[in-house]
Specification:
Layout (H helix, E strand, L loop, with lengths): L2 H8 L6 H84 L4 E2 L8 E2 L19
Antiparallel strand pairs: 1-2
């Protein structure tokens, strides 16, 4: 056996050290570029998180405003119904008063329009009660 032949067979036939250094340098450049990309993506993720939390806050505020508006509409409807009921009661009461308590009106004796006689009022007492302090 030839000793040179043995050496060539045992020698590693892969890339040379210069090729390995070049491949390593290329891998380092790729890793640095990927680190930059990861940093950009993390910045974008943080900004998206801020935008999302702002949108959630806007949604919460909009829901609160909607609830206030719904409450205002409900209160307004309740107030309208109450006023309509009061109008109906007032109209009925006016008719009842007009029908049950007619009063005489004196037109020709006063300058400022009609005046009702005190004795014509249903609440007027026709019996005079003497006052104790009258002299």
């Amino acid at each position: 056996m030839n000793p040179i032949r043995t050496r060539t067979r045992g020698r590693h036939r892969g890339a040379t050290p210069a090729e390995l250094r070049a491949a390593h340098a290329e891998d380092v450049r790729i890793i640095d570029a990927l680190r930059g990309t990861v940093a950009d993506l993390m910045t974008q993720l943080d900004q998206a998180g801020i935008d999302f939390s702002g949108a959630l806050e806007d949604l919460r505020v909009a829901r609160a405003e909607l609830a206030q508006a719904e409450q205002a509409v409900t209160d307004r409807d309740r107030r309208i119904a109450d006023l309509e009921r009061r109008i109906e009661v007032g109209v009925r009461a006016a008719h009842v008063i007009a029908d049950t308590q007619p009063c005489q009106v004196l037109d020709d004796r006063f300058e400022h329009g009609p005046v009702r006689r005190l004795g014509a009022s249903p609440l007027a007492d026709t019996v005079e009660i003497p006052r104790p302090d009258a002299a």
